[in-house]
């Protein structure tokens, strides 16, 4: 590590927020997780499933936030890593059940991370629109492997009939098929991911990413090697996307090639923009708002026949949000805290 590392960082990246302000920002997040923990006690099955979907998408959004919001790398192929995590879970789960969570979960995350290592080693040597197009191309390659080969089941996809076992020897620690166990498992993964990223961004590594985002040329001029940090962030982000894909596959019991498509990459990018780039809380808010708006505009009970054109309504709403809230939904909370 070069001794000029910290001096190369912009002042905004070096300065930490005052402790009282950080504590205040943590309160809404803690309250949000507490509400999520209590929701299954008073909601029906449909709303519990919808909440699980939101939590999985929030985890997916957090993984992309590490790249786009914290490192300044706009990736348009993130669905590829999400889909790889989901497909590995499906392909490695025996038809008769009996897969262990202890190796299936690391395998899903590891496969996404290994693919990201290869993609990042090439794509991170480019910048701007070239980086965007290369990541998109690699994601589309994964899509066509799943769609056009027997390996991924083609357009029909693959079904999962059993969730993995969580055992310690012969003792079953968790049964993910009973009650709300899987709901709380997803919630635990989301909370752990948020805590991990929050700690990481306050570390020396996180300050380095902030410096790269603010002024990578200045960091290099000071003798700071930025490439390994960007590659590490890229692989970690992809591994977390693989975790989200793993949870998605287990929730629905089904995967198909559409989860690897560029549409899915665009959707998660919209989530973090809608929530507010540069904030972990923004990824959570963006996933919540995007999913609820999608469900609202697809409701035939409210919009009748026009519900078939929900993409138009959603697009216009997002344009309005971006125009009126340039800092995203999280900007509303930051404005209130500043007052």
From TrEMBL:
It is found in: Cell membrane. It is a multi-pass membrane protein. Pfam families: BPD_transp_2. InterPro entries: ABC_transp_permease, LivM-like. It comes from the Bacteria. Its main location: membrane. The keyword Repeat does not apply. The chain crosses the membrane at residues 25-48, 55-81, 101-122, 129-146, 182-201, 227-248, 268-293, 314-333. Keywords: Cell membrane, Membrane, Transmembrane, Transmembrane helix. This is Branched-chain amino acid ABC transporter permease.
